[in-house]
Amino acid sequence: MGEIRDIEVVVFDVLGTLVDESSGLRAAIREATPASDEAAVGDLVTLWQQHCEHEQQRIQRGHRPYANTEVIDAEAARRVAEQAGIDDPAAVARLATAGQRLPPWDDSVAGLGRLARRFPVIGLSNASRTALLRLDAHTGLRWHQALSAEAVLAYKPAPEVYRLAVDTAGCPPERVLMVAAHAWDLRGARAAGLRTAYVRRPAGDPPTSSDDFDGRFDGLDQLVDALTPGQVASGSP
Predict the structure, then answer these.
(1) In the chain, what percentage of residues exceed pLDDT 90?
(2) Euclidean distance between the first and final Cα of the chain, in Å?
(3) 215 and 206 in contact (C-beta within 8 Å)?
(4) Is a pLDDT exceeding 50 seen at residue 89?
(5) What are the backbone dihedrals phi and psi of residue 48, each rounded to the nearest 5 degrees, phi first?
(6) Where are the alpha helices (DSSP H) in 127-182?
(7) CB count, 10 Å around CB of 27?
(8) Dist CA 133 CA 174 (whole Å)
């Protein structure tokens, strides 16, 4: 795995990388449909995720005006409710905010905390500004700034999202490390000039043999260890 050198700022994908999106959606759907068995809940989770992915892709391709994840999640909640026969408006409204209550992975809070003592840490997510705020409060994740792709009215892997992170970091892109559990996200970051590190998660998008990332890790502890003391950002203790 080795070391990753000459990094000033670390940028993290959030959904799937720092929080367990699939388990969080499953828990919310199970709460809304207590009579459903595990297979039915799994089908509803798939319905939700496919809707969100499809709509974000439509926006990326210019087939739909930009809508943030709160809008798209509300659409997904209505589709799940229709499929499951939920007719309680309060239950549907709560389900629509499931993305704001996702659980962190076991190593996320401690690993991010360790890293944030040594580097400026930025969260960079397709989640809306409000969703990021609520998710931060729910999980206790520690970053110095959370950036939503909503600020540039786009979704990763659009290059303007990564430029937002680089502009915020205030240093050259080759000194910014993008960390994600999704190879597609890291390919977008690499195309924008950022350094890249893959962290394996059960529901992530693993790299192929042709992906040239700066590091591949089994968890955040390995990543933090790879960012050696010699790489502490200027001005850090």
Answers:
(1) 93
(2) 26
(3) no
(4) yes
(5) -60, -50
(6) 129-139, 159-169
(7) 17
(8) 28
Show the tokens assigned to 85: 């026969």
- Mean of the per-residue pLDDT values for the chain? 94
Is pTM beyond 0.85? Reply is yes
pLDDT, tens digit, 9 for 90 and up, residues 38-56:
999 999 999 999 999 999 9
Burial of residue 234 (number of CB atoms within 10 Å: 0-12, 13-18, 19+): exposed
Instruction: Tell whether the model's pLDDT for residue 91 goes beyond 90.
Output: yes
Buried residues in 38-75 as b, exposed as e (16+ CB within 10 A): eeebebbbebbeebbeebbeebeeeeeeebbbbebbbb
**DSSP summary character for residue 182:** B
Phi, psi angle pair for 57, to nearest 5°: -65, -40
Asked if the model's pLDDT at residue 235 lies above 50, the reply is no
Nearest to 127 by CA among 67, 215, 185: 67
Residue 146 main-chain phi, psi, to 5 deg: -115, 125
How remote is the C-alpha of 211 from its chain's centroid? 20
- How confident is the model at residue 237, as a pLDDT? 36
The CB density around residue 3, as the number of other CB atoms within 10 Å, is: 12
Residue 182: the pLDDT is 98
